[in-house]
Amino acid sequence: MKKLTLILFACLCSLQTLSAQDITRDQRMQWWREARFGMFIHWGVYAQLAGVYDGHEINKAGEWIMNRGKIPVAAYQQVAKQFNPVKYNADEWVRMAKDAGMKYIVITAKHHDGFALFNTKASKWNVVNATPYGKDLLQPLVAACKKYNMKLGFYYSQAQDWNNPGGAVNRKVTSEGWLNPDSAKIDAYTKDHDGHWDPAQETATFAQYIDRVAVPQVKELLSNYGDVAVLWWDTPTNMTDDAAQKLNALLKLQPNIITNDRLKRPNFPGDTKTPEQKIPKAGELDGSDWETCMTMNGTWGFKSWDDKWKSNETLIRNLIDIASKGGNYLLNIGPKADGTFPEQSINSLKTIGSWMKVNGEAIYATHATTLPQPAWGRTTQKGDFLYLFVFNWPQDGKLVIPEMKQSIVSAQLLAGGSKLKTEGSTIQLPAKAPDAIASVVKVQIKR
């Protein structure tokens, strides 16, 4: 009997411990789940090249130009001597994000080209030591985020690094995007050198890179910039469990930090899943915290000749679609080399912001409903309120909520606040939609 009692007590303690851990995680994730909308920023030396090297337009995303163009380390580092973002205004960046309705920002502290936007002691390949600008780019952003009550997170490429020796490289072999006379020679080299195209990249091992660069830089990011809301790992090429554990152990420096699932799969799942450039189908990621990251045009880093800009309708409806499925939308900006946002990005942020000022309550702190996806749009829920996003305004003025089981207490348009008549699960709408992109009907239900 005494032995049984001890076993039951141990089981109870285990359950209490698990419960406490669950509550702690929920508390840690609360702001993120309520935010629904954030800004991704891809910025670095690649912005100076703007998608063009040696007079040739290089295909694929702008921030991959060194890899896709197989640019030698020494040549790429010379580009940094021109990188001088004198028009960089962190206050303006954060204000634009806030005015757009965004609640957090994630910036590329170090992308795959290994260039650090911060003052690091682990490598001279950083904005302070390698550019005429000579100042830490993250500190002003930290100050501006505090001013505007904006959460700030850091993207960090923990495995791929094409400049710091020993860093991993995406194994794609062929040189792309331009007629390099040495392409055949470069491609032959990369086949035998695990994707590397320059001997300068191989003067250290991957394990040495982790110990000398990645671990100390992540420690700097988590120690020198106050509260860090998110650490956004990327592409675990060549990652080992040992290397991942060294980086994961540093998270104790920021107990409230949120991480994604890209440190090393599957043993380091992080807190959030990260579908890229796509929105999951309804129900595909139920039970998970997830975030779709997406570009405004066809590239993450600035590329002067990419004009495939998404329409404002697409951007706003993407946000709605993602929120209706319980996810977050991390929408990317690729600043120019001088530190300014592209004009198209600025205009889209303004349009999204105008829509969010009217309809933001239907996005923030909402969750997916149990209703099927309606033909006329999308739905979200918060407490006793349903939010109906109407993309296709019914010509007969009757909006039918499919499979609605609860009684409707009241209904109104968020734009203007007009009260609407209801009958069963049908809402009578005015003849004209108040917003051509998406009008929102707020419905109070009786549970």
Task: Give the topology.
Blueprint: H1 2-35, E1 37-41, H2 46-49, E2 52-53, E3 56-57, H3 65-68, H4 73-79, H5 90-99, E4 104-110, H6 127-130, H7 138-147, E5 151-156, H8 183-192, H9 206-223, E6 230-233, H10 241-248, E7 258-259, E8 291-294, H11 312-324, E9 328-333, H12 343-359, E10 377-382, E11 385-390, E12 398-400, E13 407-413, E14 422-423, E15 426-428, E16 439-446
Parallel strand pairs: 1-4, 1-9, 4-5, 5-6, 6-7, 8-9
Antiparallel strand pairs: 2-3, 10-11, 11-16, 12-15, 13-16, 14-15
Describe this structure in words.
Helix content is 31%, strand content 16%. The protein is α/β, with parallel strands linked by helices and 447 residues long. It folds into two domains: 333 residues, Alpha-Beta Barrel (TIM Barrel); 70 residues, Immunoglobulin-like (Sandwich), CATH 2.60.40. Strands 7-6-5-4-1-9-8 form a seven-stranded parallel β-sheet, with helices on both faces. Helix 5 crosses helix 7 and helix 5 packs across helix 12. The radius of gyration is 24 Å and the shape is elongated. It starts with a helix and ends with a strand.
Could you say what the CATH architecture of the largest domain is? Alpha-Beta Barrel
First-to-last CA distance: 47 Å
In DSSP terms (H or I, runs of 4 or more residues), the helix count works out at: 12
Indicate the CATH class of the largest domain. Alpha Beta
The overall pLDDT average reads 94
